[in-house]
Each structure stands twice: as C-alpha cells, then as structure tokens.
Hints:
Elements: E1 4-12, H1 17-26, E2 31-42, H2 44-61, E3 64-68, H3 72-81, H4 83-86, E4 88-89
Parallel strand pairs: 1-2, 2-3, 3-4
Helix pairs in contact: 1-2
Amino acid sequence: MLCNYFSLAGNIDAQAETQLMALPAKVNQQLVKFDFGNAGRINSMGIALLLRCFKRIKEEKRAEIQVLQVNATNTMLFKMTGIFLLAAAAKD
C-alpha cells in the first residue's frame, strides 16, 4: 500500500510548528506514517502541535495515521495525551 512517510528528527517543541503545520498539505495517500526513530524530547507544545497536525490529516485528508519507532517514554506520553486516539502504532 502506498503511503506518505515523514521522519521526525530532533526535539519536538514550539520550534517545530512551521514544519508540522506544513505536513497535512503534503499528504496525498490514505496511509501516513510518522517515524519517531530520530526524534528527541517532546514537550507539551510538541504534543499540542502533533495533535493539531494529526487531527488535520484525519479530518482534511481522511487518512489513517501510523507512528513508528516510538520509544517507551513517548509511548506513555502518547497514551496519556490522546495521540493514540488519532494514530496507531505501526504493526511492522
């Protein structure tokens, strides 16, 4: 299945706003994969930005979102903040 693939690198915080808010416009497939393998710390602003980005992809593009290589800390953070209500852990 074709998908859009985005690899996130570095800390995800207020500095990532421009990049994250540009991603929904780039989605042109029904499956979108976000790779967190190179992502660093994700703060509260980063979570808010991810939620906004994922929500726009779900609503505007009607695409399924999967997250890959999420470390244990971020997995817990995603569960607590609702990220996993918008995106599923990839079954790769």
